[in-house]
Amino acid sequence: MDPLVALVAIVLLIIFIIALGYTASIHVGANRRLRAAKEKLDYVKQMENLARLRHRDLDAFAKELNILRAKKHKHGIPTVTLEKIQFNLMYSIDED
User: Fold this and answer.
1) pTM over the 0.70 mark
2) CA separation for the pair 59, 38 (Å, rounded)
């Protein structure tokens, strides 16, 4: 085999490996951004659902709120406590 042909083959192989690594790194970054966007969308959907429940169904709101608090390792809020401030919950201005 001609040394020039072997050199060209090695250079092409190295370029192919570099291009493959570059595209793989782009793919990993895109997946990371996509996963972060999905998590943010899920969070927004969850907060929107909680806001809707706050205005419509106090018992379902308390249940969902306590599920969220349990995920954050916090104590649940009894429905009795929420009933005392139900008017404020239903008609407060959302800051989020």
Assistant:
1) no
2) 28
Residue 85 pLDDT: 79
Domain ranges of the chain: 3-91
Q: Is 95 helix (H, G, I), strand (E, B) or coil?
A: coil
Residue spans of beta strands (DSSP E) within 1-96: none
DSSP code string of 20-88: HHHHHHHHHHHHHHHHHHHHHHHHHHHHHHHHHHHHH-HHHHHHHHHHHHHHTT-PPPPHHHHHHTHHH
**Closest by Cα among 41, 38, 62 to 50:** 62
**CB within 8 Å of 50: residues ≥ 6 apart:** 61, 64, 65, 68
Q: How far is CA 68 from the centre of its chain?
A: 15
